[in-house]
Amino acid sequence: MKLPAVPIAALFAGGIALGLSPFIAPHATSNAFLVICFVWAGASLLAGFLLVKLNRLFPAAAASCICWMVLGVLGACLAEQPRPRHHVLSQIESGRLALKSPLRWHGQLRDEPTKLPWGYGYEIALSGVEYEGAWIPVTGGLRLSFTTHPQQPLPPEVHAGDELSVLTQAKLPQVFKDDGAFDRREYLAQQGIDLVATLRAPELLERVSSTPPTIGSRLARTRQRLREAIDQLFSATPQAAGVLRAMLLGDRHFVDQAEATDFQKAGVYHVLVVAGLHVGAIAMVLFWAGRRLRLSPLVTILFTLTLLSAYVAVVEQRPPVMRAALMTALVLIGSFFFRRLDLLNSAALAALLLLVAKPLALRDSSFQLTFLAIGCIAGIAAPWLDRALQPYVRALRGWRDVTRDASQEPRAAQFRIDLRSLARWITSPLPARAGTMTGDLLAGSLAFALRACELLVITMVLQIGMLPLMARDFHRVTLAGPAANLLAVPVMSALVPLGFLTLLVGSLVPALGKLLAVPIGWLTLFLVHVAQWFAHFPAWSYRIPGPALGLTLFFFLAAIMLAAAIRMPPPWRNWMSRAWLCVLLAAALLVAIYPFAPQWSKGKLEVSVLDVGQGDSLFIVSPGGKTMLIDGGGAFAGFPGREEHNGIDPGEDAVSPYLWSRGFQKLDVVALTHAHQDHLGGLTAILENFRVAELWIGREVSSVALGKLEELARRKNIPIQHELRGKTFSWDGVDGEFLWPTTPPGEVAPSAKNNDSLVLRLHYLDRAILLPGDAEKQVEHEIVAENRQEDLRADVLKVGHHGSKNSTTPEFLDAVRPAIGIISAGAENPYGHPSPELLERLENANVRILRTDRDGAVHILTDGKKWEISCYARCPESLSGNVSAKAEKPNQQQQNEKQ
Q1: Hey, how many other C-beta atoms are within 10 angstroms of the C-beta on 861?
Q2: Does residue 455 register a pLDDT over 80?
Q3: Where do runs of H (alpha helix) occur along 198-337?
Q4: Has this prediction a pTM greater than 0.85?
Q5: Do residues 342 and 2 make contact, with C-beta atoms less than 8 angstroms apart?
Q6: Which of 187, 385, 448, 665 is surrounded by the fewest CB atoms within 10 Å?
C-alpha cells in the first residue's frame, strides 16, 4: 500500500468521532464500557496476528480496521473522563466554591505580562484560593486584565514563573446561550483559561515569591524582549509593528479590528495567524541556508530542526504551530530515509500521532482546518501539479543543454526544443552577451509564471476544498482569495524570515536594525494595503449560513473520490477525475450560494428573545415569513485612547450565528429601539452580514454611533424610516402598533435616553405581545394614561429595561396583565438586573418569569390561539394556562453553562 498511514488515521479518527457521538458519549465514563473496549481491541489485534500467520490477509486487514476503530473509541472515552476533583470548574460545579464575591487567588504566572493596547494581561496557573476563611487547593487557569490610567500607578513588576496573589472577582467566560453562537468558553478552555477577571487596582496584585529561572520562564522573557524589540524598531510605523507582532510572534492584540476584518474579506487572514505557512517559510529558509553552507544532508536536517524547534518555543507551543512543526519534522526525516516521500502519507501519520496524544483535538476546528488544508494540497493539488505543470518546471533546468532532452517526458522535451528555438529567434539580432541575458530572462520569466500558476492552483484548491468548514465556522465566502494570495503569500514568506533577521541584527547592532526595519515596514504596509484593496470590493466577500451536515459529507465524499481518481492510472484517471471534479464543483456551488429556504413555522407568529448578555435583541417572524430584528445587543465601546478596539460583539458572535443557524440571509426590517450601546452596538454587524430591506428607528439622536449606523445603511442603500406613536403595520395577519415615542420627526435629541425607546405591541388573532424596549416608569405612565386597557393587554411582556426597578410599574402591569414576562439581562451584570424589587412585583402579579441570563434564548410561537414557549438552556417550570413548555435537546452549549 502506497499510503498506509491514511486508512489507519481515518479509522482512528472515525473511532474518536463515534466515541464522541450521542450514541456512545453517555457511556464514556462507565468502567464496564471501557473494559469492553479494551477486550474488543485486544481480541481484534490477536485475531489479526493469527490471520496473518494463516495467510488470510483480507480478514486480517478487516480485524486491523476494527482494532484501530475501537482504539479510537477508547481514546475518546478516556479523554472524556471527569475533571480532577481539585480543578476549579469541578469545585464550582460541586458547590464547594462560589464566584459571587471577590476572592484571593493564588498561582504561578505562566508567561510574561502581555502588553495590550489598553493595559496589561496576565495568565495565572492557579494553585489555590482563599474561600470563607479556608484555603482550597485548585487547579486551572485564570486570565487577568488591567486597564491603565494616566494618574494610576502600574501593578508590581512580575515575571513568568513568579508566585502571585490577586484579590479579584473571577467569573466564567461570557457565553451566549443561543443556537449557533460562538462558544467563547470552550475556545478559552482550549488555551487553558477557565476563569477571567479584572484587576480593579494595582495594589490588589502581589508577588509572593520568585522562583529560579526555568527553560519556560527564559523562553517567556525572550518572547517578551522580541515583542519590545518590534515596538522599538518599528516605532515610526505602529501599524506595521502591530501586524509584525502577529505574523512573527502570534500576538494579534495590536491588529485593529477593522484591519483584521479586511484580511478576512480578502481571504488572507491566515498570514496573521502563526501556523503552517509561517513554519513552512522558516523551515524552507533554514533548509536553504544549510544547503548553501554545504552541510551534509543529515547535518542540514538537524540544523533545520534545531532552529525550527527554537522558533516554535519562542512563538509559544500553540496547537497549529506544533502541528506544522511535526509535519515539517516528519517530511524532513522521511526525506533522509526515502528518495521521495508522499506528503499525504506524512500528513496522515502526523494526524495519527496528534490524535493518539490528544483525541479530543478531532473536534477542534483548528485541527480540522489544518489537516483539511494539507489534504487539499497533498491529495488534489500536488498530484495534479506533478502531472500538469511540474514536467515543464523540471524542463527549464539546464534548458540549453540538448543532451538532457532525452531524460524528459516527450511533452517536456518538446517544450525545451521550442524554448530554444524561440530564444534563438528573439536573440539572433542581439550581441552574444545580450542574447544570453535575454534568453535567461525568457526562461526565468517562464519559471516565474509557472510558479505563479502553481500558487494559483493551490490557492484555488484550498478555496474550494475548505469552503464547507469556512462556511460552517466563519460564515464567509471570499472570492478574492486566490488573487489576493498571489501577492500576500510571497510577501509573507519574505517577511517572516526577514523580520526575524531584522530582530537578530537589531539586538546586536541597533543602528543597523533600525535601517533594516525601514524596508520591512514598507513591505508590511504593502501587505496591509493589498488586504484593504481587495476588501473594498463588497461582491468579492459575503456571509452565508453554514451548510447542512449531509451536504458537507457529500462534498467531502466527492473530494475524496476526486483525490483517488487523480492517482489512478490512465485511462481511468482522465474521465473519472473530470466527473468527480464536476460533482465537487456542483457541491461547492450549493455551499457558496446556499439556495435553501430558512427554517420558520408557517402560519405562526414567532418572537425570539435572544441572549446577548447585558442588552436586547429580538427576532420576529410573521406567519408568512416576514422578518424583523429589533436591536442587536452591544458591547463595551472601546478603551482609553484606542476606541477601535471593541469588546465582544453580540451582533457578530450571537445574533448573526443564530440567524445563520436557521438559514436566514436577509431581513425585511431591522429596528432600533433607542441609541444606547447595549441595543445599537451589534447592529453594525447585522447590516454588514445580511441583506436588510429597511432600517426603522424612533427618535433621531445626536449620537456618533447612531450616525455611523445610518451612514452604513445609506452606503448599502437601506431606506431609513422613523417610527413614532400611532404608526401601524400589518404582516400576514399580525397587527403592529407603535405606542411610543411621541417626538415629531425631524427633531434631533441631544443624547439617547431610555424614554426614547420604541414601544411596539404585536397582535395576532387572540394573542398579543408587548415590547417596551428600555422605556421607564414615566413613559409607562403616559402610555397607560393615553390608551385603553384593551389596547395594552398582552399575554407576553418583554420586561422593560432589562428588569430595572424603574420600569414595569404595578400600574403598568395591571394594565397589561401579562401571563409571561421575559427579562433580557446579562449574567452577573454590574447593574444588578433584574432588580429583586421588580422580580417581587412580577411574582405578586402572578407573572411567570423567563430570563435570558438563566434560561438562554426564549422562543415564543403562537398560532393566535395558544402559545408554545421553549428555552435554549432550560425553562424553569411547566407553564400553565394556554402556554405549553417545549423541551429543548441538550447540546454542548448547555453543558458548558452547567459548569
Answers
A1: 19
A2: yes
A3: 215-233, 238-249, 257-266, 276-292, 297-314, 319-337
A4: yes
A5: yes
A6: 448
Does residue 380 sit within a domain?
Answer: no
Classified as helix, coil or strand, 218 is helix
Q: Residue 830, class by beta-carbon neighbours within 10 Å (0-12 exposed, 13-18 middle, 19+ buried)?
A: exposed
What is the per-residue pLDDT for 715? 94
Crossing angle of helices 319-337 and 365-376, rounded to 10°: 30
Give every CB contact of residue 529 below 8 A, 6+ residues apart in sequence.
none
Instruction: Judge whether 839 and 846 are in contact, CB under 8 Å.
Output: no
Q: Residue 744: its pLDDT value, please?
A: 67
Q: Are 618 and 629 in contact (CB under 8 A)?
A: yes
Classify burial at 443, counting beta carbons within 10 Å of its beta carbon; exposed 0-12, middle 13-18, buried 19 or more.
middle
Same domain for 669 and 789: yes
Residue 93: phi, psi to the nearest 5? -65, -35
pLDDT tens digits, 636-691:
544 334 433 446 889 999 999 999 999 999 999 999 999 999 999 999 999 999 99
The C-alpha R_g of the chain, in whole angstroms, comes to 31
The reply to whether 70 falls in a domain is yes
Whether 888 has a pLDDT exceeding 60, the answer reads no
**Number of domains forming the structure of the chain:** 6
Amino acid sitting at position 595: P
Of the pLDDT bands very low, low, confident and very high (cuts 50, 70, 90), residue 205 is very high
Q: Which residue has the cell 463588497?
A: 538
What does the alpha-carbon distance between residue 201 and residue 713 come to, in Å, rounded to a whole number? 41
Contact call for residues 251 and 343 (beta carbons, < 8 A): no
pLDDT of 27: 79
Note the pLDDT of residue 648. 83
Q: List strand residue ranges (DSSP E) for 840-892, in order.
A: 848-851, 858-862, 867-871, 883-886
The answer to the question of residue 375 being in a domain is no
- Does 205 share its domain with 325? no
- Find all residues with CB under 8 Å of 187, minimum gap 6, and list them: none
Does the N-terminal peptide bond of residue 834 adopt cis geometry, omega within 30 degrees of 0? yes
Arithmetic mean of pLDDT over the chain: 89
- Residue 3's pLDDT band (cuts 50, 70, 90): confident
* Grid coordinates given for 535: 476588501
239 and 208 fall within a common domain:
no
Reference 382, options 458, 467, 446; nearest CA is 458
Domain interval for residue 560: 549-590
Tens digit of pLDDT for each residue in 464-483? 999 999 999 999 999 999 99
Closest to 354 in 3D by CA, of 366, 338, 343: 366
Average pLDDT value for residue range 318-323: 81
- How many whole angstroms separate alpha carbon 633 and alpha carbon 612? 6
Q: Are residues 759 and 775 in the same domain?
A: yes
Q: What are phi and psi of 106, to 5 degrees?
A: -125, 145
Q: Tell me which residue has cell 515596538.
A: 231
Identify whether 371 is part of a domain: no
Retrieve residue 734's grid coordinates.
399580525
Grid coordinates given for 256: 485593529
User: 613: helix, coil or strand?
Assistant: coil
C-alpha cell at 430: 542581439
Nearest Cα neighbor of 567 from 296, 814, 382 is 382
Q: Are residues 343 and 404 in the same domain?
A: no
User: Does 327 share its domain with 411?
Assistant: no
Nearest one of 767, 706, 774 to 740, comparing CA atoms: 774
Q: Contact, 883 vs 866, CB < 8 A?
A: yes
| Helix (H) or strand (E) run with residue 93 in it | helix 88-93
**How far is Cα 387 from Cα 391, in angstroms, rounded to an integer?**
7
Cα distance between residue 201 and residue 185, in whole Å: 26
Residue 625: closest CA among 607, 608, 602, 656: 602
- What is the Cα–Cα distance from 883 to 870, expressed in whole angstroms? 10
Q: Give the N- to C-terminal CA distance of the chain in Å, as an integer.
A: 47
CA-CA distance, 855 to 876, in Å (whole number)? Answer: 7
